[in-house]
Amino acid sequence: MRASTVFLAALVVAGCNESGSEPSAEPSSKASTSSPAGNPSAAPTANEKPLAAKKPMAKETSDTASDHLGKLPEGVGLKLGSPLPELKLQSSEGDEVDVNALAKTGTLMLVFYRGGWCPFCNYQIHSLAKAYPEFQKRGVTPVAISVDLPNEASKTQTSWKIPFPVLTDPELVAHKAFNVLNQLDDSGLAKLKGYGIDLEQRTGQKHHTIAIPSIFIINDGKLAWAHADTDYKTRPSTTQLLKVIDDLKL
Length: 250
Description:
The chain is an alpha/beta fold. The protein is built from nine helices and eleven strands. The radius of gyration is 22 Å and the shape is globular. The model is unreliable at about 1-50 (pLDDT under 50).
């Protein structure tokens, strides 16, 4: 009788430890502070390793159709040949970066992404990071830009080991200059909040605006190529971008 009572008690304890909630659609990038024993204040023992921070979620994008590559939606972007606007942004470390001075060191490929919370943006950024040596061979430096605050941009740069600049533009200086503004309505904000994403917290702003995913190649201080798509799940692949650069013969 005593053995069955112990067995039933064990089942009750196991049931209490089983979470009934669904996993978050947007995994947190912060490391858990809970110990294996469930005591937040208990430090790991010598034989235990601290829990690693989770990487942001990434989802594979669809390649841009060849007949849409290098095109801009109406009212988006800048005209080819336009000079690079005067831009001073912040790095993921919070340092000021003069984009115009950076452009004098070689060809830039400015990549506007929605934010580190966007799984499709993370896939794109990670793909660019892996292909970075190929861009280097061609004298092209990718530069990622979003409305994220420096601390959020730093998480993105660290998570994907990004070797090129990741700049932050919460005040929309570059977004306005390149005309890639996407202001979210109430339903768009509600959708993000449903995934646990607080845009105001990530940007420190109340403009509720993110980037239309877009790419601008700057050569000799002028716009040599541009692409944007309001379908955030579709992006030019690194293979397509490298071919574009080769065809431009910069």
